[in-house]
Design a protein that fits this description.
The chain is α/β, with parallel strands linked by helices and 147 residues long. The protein is built from 6 helices and 8 strands. The chain has one domain. Helix content is 37%, strand content 21%. It has a 5-stranded mixed β-sheet with strand order 5-6-1-7-8. Strands 2-3-4 form a 3-stranded antiparallel β-sheet. Helix 5 (93-103) links the parallel strand 5 (83-84) and strand 6. Helix 3 (32-42) runs antiparallel to helix 4 (67-77). It is globular, with a radius of gyration of 15 Å.
Length: 147
C-alpha cells in the first residue's frame, strides 16, 4: 500500500536529485518497468545504464534525467526508504501508485503539497492521521489538514 506523510518529515530524503546522482546503479535503468517510466515521464529511450536519448535534450547521462523520474526510480529501487515526492509533478502520480502495486509492499513517501492522483479509485494511507482514502475527494479533505 502507498503511505503518505504530509509536511515536514526529518527522516525523509529531501534532495532526491543529489541522492540519486550518488547512489543509482546502471541496472536500475535496464529494468523493463523503469524503462516504461522513463519513456512516459521524460519521453526518453534508455541507451545504456548510463545514458538516455531524450526527445527534448538528445543523448544525456542518467544523472541529467528529470528530478521527478529520479525520485520514481529511487522509490522503485529503494522502497524501504522515504523520499520527498514533492519533487515529482502530477505526471508521476500514476507511477507512484503503480510502483506500490508492483512491489506488493508498503512504501512511504513524503509530500509537501497535494499531488493529483487522478479521477480513479486507489488506496492510500495518510500516515498523519492513519486514514485510508480511496479517491481524490477523500484525499484532499485529509491532506489539507496537514499542509
Amino acid at each position: 500500500m502507498l503511505n503518505i506523510f504530509y509536511g515536514d518529515m526529518p527522516e525523509a530524503i529531501y534532495n532526491t536529485s543529489l541522492y540519486f546522482n550518488n547512489t543509482y546503479f546502471d541496472s536500475w535503468l535496464m529494468d523493463e518497468f523503469a524503462q516504461k517510466m522513463i519513456r512516459s515521464i521524460d519521453k526518453a529511450t534508455v541507451l545504456s545504464g548510463q545514458a538516455v536519448d531524450s526527445k527534448a535534450l538528445g543523448v544525456i547521462p542518467a544523472t541529467k534525467i528529470s528530478g521527478g523520474l529520479k525520485t520514481l526510480l529511487l522509490i522503485y529501487n529503494q522502497p524501504q526508504k522515504i523520499f520527498n515526492a514533492s519533487t515529482c509533478g502530477d505526471n508521476c502520480a500514476k507511477w507512484i501508485l503503480r510502483i506500490a502495486k508492483k512491489l506488493n509492499t508498503d512504501i512511504t513517501i513524503n509530500l509537501r503539497h497535494i499531488m493529483d492522483f487522478g479521477d480513479g479509485q486507489f488506496e492510500i494511507r495518510i500516515l498523519n492521521n492513519d486514514k485510508i482514502v480511496h479517491n481524490m475527494s477523500e484525499l484532499v479533505v485529509y491532506a489539507g489538514e496537514f499542509l
